[in-house]
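Teaching assistant's notes for section 4

Start the section by putting this record on the projector. Ask students to predict, before seeing the second block, whether ribonuclease H will look compact or extended. Collect guesses on the board.
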Amino acid sequence: GGSDAVAGIAVYWGLDDPRNVMEKLPGPHQTIPRAELWAILRALNIYTTSQYAIRCLTEWIATWRRNGWRTFSNQAVAHQDIIRTVVCLISHRPGKVNFVSISRDALWHDLTLPI
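Reveal the predicted structure now:
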């Protein structure tokens, strides 16, 4: 792309699927190959500002399962209905799911991409 080129990306999951994405490619390098790769990156990563959500699904889940969905203080795990559903959906998805922690003020061009 030339200096005035603008590229966009789309991730299509199905008709009226809320996961569908259509947006401008972030950053100064606006090329079709970069946009195609960025779309794949968007489909394979979950971006969130919530350390709580990431830790629920990546760190604490194994202990909660072993402890019968109880915390270290023997309390029922909060929000376990949602956590269990998300874990089930992730386990049925082909490939690895990457959780990417971003700051609340982050813009797409500020993201540190996982390698």
